[in-house]
Sequence to fold (292 residues):
Amino acid sequence: MDGRERELRSRRAGGGLALAGGVVCVCLTVAGCSGYGEAASAQGAGGGDPVDVLHRAADRLVAAGSAKTRTAMQMASGGTRVTIRGEGVYDFEQRLGQLKVRLPQDPAGSSEHRPITELLAPGALFMKNRGAGVPDDKWVRVETDSLSDGNLVTGGATDPFAAAEVLRGTRTATFVERTELAGTPVRHYRGTADLARAARGASEGNRKALAAAAEGFATARVPFDAYLDDEGRIRKVRHRFSFANGQGDGTGIVDVASTTLLYDFGAAVRVRLPEERDIYAGKIAAGPHGKN
Fold:
């Protein structure tokens, strides 16, 4: 892919797990009470039908242009629990983003991992400081629609727009309460999305990836909690995914809780995708307990 640079300012400045090539492999190898009554719960306390509101949430983000984001992904399997954190920016119009993803310490606490730089683009994930034999000046490129989880988990952070488009598959949802998030009034919704349905309604860049996730996860049903502001924009969304451990060691299902926070809508986004010559084409070495 040709390198290209984009800098955008929104017109609206308002307010392991053997997943090939992914951060998860690296890392794991080392109804609420609202007080509003049943009628308010069904209609979202003035926000409209919850299912309809959630179906439109991704479109509201596109209209907002861009945002800063923080992510957290907690994974639990076989008594091991780790949390991967990320921070960066995302352009919802161009479907481009950049994150710094921080891995936890090794179990012994003796080594510190360098942050992994991730570039998010339609159909692709680029990672730098991937380790495992990749030169420091090279990027690893992963085709997201080739991943069994559609890159909802592999990168250690869910692509913010993919996280929003999962809500296009909402089948059931209820309004929980009116609350605040970092000083912003929000409506809290709780529900379940279907990944296959989400894929059918998704943008072209996420359609194949979400369809792959619908087939690759232990279940296509995704429970979620979503917090939307008065403009219908997602401020926080937490998905709970489950998938089978691909190592064949009998450790069973991996539970993943992926949280995406969005704020500072209209923030400038500058993403430069790597040139072909900067992409590593060699073999990626396996971690001590993983495989690629």
Summary: The chain is about 20% helix and 40% strand. The radius of gyration is 19 Å.
